[in-house]
Amino acid sequence: MFNAAARAGAPARGYAPSSSSTARVSAGASRHFSGGAAAGPDGVPNVPYFVHGEKKYSKTKDFFDVHDPATGKIIARTPLMLKSEMQEAVDSSREAQKAWREIGVSVRARHMHRFEQVIKENEVELARILTEEQGKTTADAMGEWTGRT
Question: What's phi and psi for 63, nearest 5 deg?
Fold first, then answer.
């Protein structure tokens, strides 16, 4: 489910809990992400990662293929990131957490409610991606995002 949310691009559309780039809430994306993704030589998109709100592509040569279970077609490739890239992401997350904990509870709650709203605004697209990635029916995928089945 997280990959579907990331691929929909909702957090990357500018949602950030503070003006600090280290506290930005961001996630990976693929061809569904506005702005697209770098594609391999076969045209299959490589899923990027985000550090300090900046979209990056792994330098790894090893990827995990994401298949559409209905067709078997490869729809994206997720990098098996290098240790240095993982450490960069961990370090960035630690810095973001320091900034986040300094924000008052009521402000954090507003940010979380805004994030919830962005998910609701994109639930149809998120359900479509979930259906493509996991082979769920559209109704089941919508239930993942709405809590209704």
Answer: -135, 155
Cβ atoms of 132 and 75 closer than 8 Å: yes
Amino acid at 96: A
- Please name each of the domains of the chain with its CATH number: 2-146 (3.40.605.10)
Measured CA to CA in angstroms, residue 12 lies from 24, 52, 104, 119 at distances of 9, 12, 23, 12
According to the model, what pLDDT value does residue 8 have?
A: 45
pTM: 0.63
Give the Cα separation of 45 and 122 in Å (integer). Answer: 21
Contact in structure between 53 and 47 (CB atoms under 8 Å): no
